[in-house]
Amino acid sequence: MEFAFTEEQRMIAETARAFFAENATSDRTRKAMAADGMDRALWNAFCQELALSGIGLPENAGGAGLGLVELAIIAEAAGAQVAALPMLGSLVQAAQAIAAGGNDAQQAEWLPKLIAGERIAGYFHDAGMQADGDRLTGSSRFVTHGASADIFVVTDMQQMWTVRADAPGVTVTAQTSMDQTRPFAHVELNGAVGERLPNPVAALAAAHRAAFVAVAAEALGGAQACLDRTVTYAKERVQFGRPIGSFQAYKHRLADMMVEIEQARSAVYWAACAVDEGAGEAALALHAAKSFAADSFFRCAGDMIQLHGGIGFTWEHDAHLFFKRARSLQTMLGSGNWHREKIATMILGEAA
Questions:
Q1: Degrees, nearest 5: CA angle 128-159-288
Q2: Beta-bridge mates of residue 189
Q3: Which of 171, 174, 295, 308 is closest to 236 using CA atoms?
Q4: Exposure winner among 64, 256, 305, 323, fewest CB in 10 A?
Q5: How far is residue 338's CA from residue 333's CA, in Å, rounded to a whole number?
Q6: Which pLDDT tens digit goes with each residue over 322-332?
Q7: How far apart are CA 15 and CA 10, in angstroms?
Q8: pTM of the predicted structure, to 2 decimals
Q9: Domains of the chain by range and CATH?
């Protein structure tokens, strides 16, 4: 497969990078961390002014009608700034599920509001969900930006429902998370009334595909930012009368980071392109992209801290924001080992 951005995709990438670089500043991110982990002004600007929030959603729902390659471009740009936004749960998982598996009324009610940023959605699954008709009992402790959500898309991996956050029987408790730019919430349903999505199989598949691509692309953007910031520091920091970037051992570490990132970039856009084109290798590519990109981000974030020396360990420096996001992404949506086991099974079958 040969892949290169189209002119439109290059324009989207440039626009998204410029937007997040200008608006998702460290100061704003830290203020969001001290509040509820969400930069609401940035979210409104992203959804309404930049108008790229519906990038991977159908046009008849107010989206742009583009694919996962374009979604990956946006996620990469946001990841490069560790943006404190509810993009993953609201636009990637919940909105994709409703767009793929909801009926016309559900799509008309929720998708325009989610795309406009007027409502925020949370997404979670509970394999032990108990459903008495449309009354649901279950919980999850790991709902991203769940404390800010107006609606939840809930699945037991067989069925899927929408549940309003203010419905009787819904309890939401904010959690203290390692990555304060993407806080978790503990959501409990005790007989809460849900509205069933008529096509849960399509909804689940769409949510998983989009989430794997978005998380992998976000990790790619974060890894690239780690390298870029470390290279800048290497040119400015002087030790023994010369920039530290001129020392061979330092240069080798930077080169190792670059190799990791370029491999991750290939994996991410291979997966996004494979899904958009309906390629038979799409499922394998998704597992490869998530595991490789998340692990690469974690290694690059660790190198960023070490190569910055003493300043890299301080709260004042942004290195810890990238490291915490990288560690969170490693375990989110399945660990690297889990994804690699899936790949082994696809390739080797019973021999795996």
A1: 85
A2: 138, 170
A3: 308
A4: 256
A5: 10
A6: 999 999 999 99
A7: 9
A8: 0.92
A9: 202-351 (1.20.140.10)
